[in-house]
Amino acid sequence: MGLLSERDKKQLKTLFEKELKEEVHLIYFTQGEGDIIIPGRPKCMYCRETDEILKEISTLSEKIQLEIYDFLGNAELAQRYGIDKIPAIIIKNETDLGLRFFGIPSGYEFSAFAEALVMVSQRKTRLKDATKKKLSEFLKTMKEQILIQVFVTPTCPYCTRMVSLAYQFAMEFPQISAHIVEATEFPYLADKYAVFGVPKTVVNDKVEIEGAISEELFLDSLLKLPRS
Questions:
Q1: Is 181 within 8 Å of 150 (Cβ atoms)?
Q2: For residue 17, what is the enclosing H or E element?
Q3: Does the pLDDT of residue 154 top 80, yes or no?
Q4: What is the pLDDT of residue 175?
Q5: Can you list the domains of the chain with their CATH numbers?
Q6: Degrees (nearest 5) of the Cα angle 66, 69, 71?
Q7: Helix (H) / strand (E) containing 188
Q8: Sign of the C-alpha dihedral, residues 186, 99, 173, 219?
Q9: Is 140 exposed, middle or buried (0-12, 13-18, 19+ CB in 10 A)?
Q10: pTM here?
Q11: Helical axes 108-122 vs 159-172, angle rounded to 10°
Q12: Cα–Cα distance, 206 to 190 (Å, whole number)
């Protein structure tokens, strides 16, 4: 029995048939069945469940292409994609858009994950023209890449807004990457960034955003980054 109910699969299939326009590629790094547990590195808690969910999703549309890699056995490829923890999902089209999901996409985050598939497939975001214009001008003054990390949990109904906005900023601007991190699966990162509530967003380790905010306020936070 799969992790997705028949009702969920039916709804997703209908959504994908209606909304997916171009191919979406999911590059998934997981823990191999025979992998040795390395001292100091915990066993991947939800790799098996994430495997199942992604395989089920990929059967619902021929436009969703899934590639699965053993994290340790494909270390060079993982490094090329900047993957340093698992489970890790890359959402891309023919181009790496900088979209990452670390952890299992479940609960409220599953809907945000499905929305990201549609957005990547349609090759467009819902960001306002004014937002894109302001950020485009700002990025011309920035030499370094911008990393947006959004810490979430499956039970957080407000996290999806920040996930969606972070992914949209990354899709629109190659200079930006968006990493969604399931906080309870990576407690060492939650401790590092003092995540006491979610969503919490950290930009380049310099700007922190507590809670869910509007597109305009998110933009204002990005514009506070020191120019390099």
A1: yes
A2: helix 6-19
A3: yes
A4: 98
A5: 6-110 (3.40.30.10), 129-223 (3.40.30.10)
A6: 140
A7: helix 187-192
A8: negative
A9: exposed
A10: 0.95
A11: 20
A12: 16
The type of residue at 216 is E
Could you tell me the two tokens for 216? 């305009």
pLDDT the model gives residue 43: 78
d(CA 48, CA 99): 21
Hunting for tokens 């994290």 — which residue is that?
71
Q: Residue 14 — left, alpha, or beta (φ > 0 → left; ψ -120 to 50 → alpha)?
A: alpha
Residue with structure tokens 């990162």?
A: 189
pLDDT digits (tens, 9 = 90+) for 109-136: 999 999 999 999 999 999 999 999 999 9
| CA geometry: angle 193, 185, 108, nearest 5 deg | 95
CA distance linking residue 21 with residue 89, whole number of Å? 21
- Please give the C-alpha separations between residue 57 and each of 90, 92, 121, 163, 227, in angstroms, as whole numbers: 14, 15, 14, 19, 41
